[in-house]
Amino acid sequence: MANLASTYRNQGRRYKAEELDVQVIDKRKRVLGAEHPDTLTSMPNLAFTLKSQRRNEEAILLMRKCFQLRKQILGPQHPYTETSLKAPNKLQMENRNSSRTLNASLSCRLHTCKSPRHSVNKS
């Protein structure tokens, strides 16, 4: 199911991917337990699906939660824990960069852009 969710996400079928990601987390919690490493692995998958839906804040919060759980369960030096530490920061940086790009684009559309390549020749 997790692989199918990933395939859906890659195909742009983000809401179907989210549905499956949530099912995977629920089933893994029920069968393996909430603290099992495989259950924790399914959390970033859902976070990436949320990010693909531009639900960046939710994705970042979920990744932070995953990091805290991995740190508690696997230990701070475990490779999965270290990866989980980097992921929310990366998502946050991408979120900031996309906001800047959007703001610059809006500025140009509103003709307030000061960039020489976007200036309109009024001669």
Automatic annotation (TrEMBL):
Q: Which superkingdom is the protein from?
A: Eukaryota
Q: Which InterPro entries match?
A: NLR-like, TPR-like_helical_dom_sf
Q: Name one Pfam family in it.
A: TPR_10
Q: Where is the composition biased (Polar residues)?
A: 80-100
**Region (Disordered), start-end ranges:** 78-100
- Which PANTHER family does the record match to this protein? AAA+ ATPASE DOMAIN-CONTAINING PROTEIN-RELATED, ATP/GTP-BINDING PROTEIN-RELATED
**Protein name (Swiss-Prot/TrEMBL):** Kinesin light chain
